[in-house]
Amino acid sequence: MWISKIEYQRILTERDEAVGFAKALEPRVIAMEAAADWMRVRVTQIDHERGALIQKYLGVSVPAIRFEEEDRSRTPVSHIINDAGQLFSDVGDNEAARMGIGWDDEGNFVSTKVVTS
Question: How much is the pTM?
């Protein structure tokens, strides 16, 4: 396939402009990644502090979220499967008893709290 010299020069010029634009954006991307890392650390810290304050003043244990940089090696499906387990974490026997949660001999859920209507 043949193209004209003018068209070839136009394509090269567009490519050079795109490369220059990408190189100009590189420092901004690095700065934004640094800002995102800082924000991740601060939000995690603030959520842990909030959980500690609720625990101290109300006596209720609140799970604190933790924002971490995404592991790029995980596939989307494994990412969903791995994170879904965190939604159903065990509160422990003492907390479950306090909340009125129990299990019968067959492993079925039994609520010991009396619900008044």
Answer: 0.42
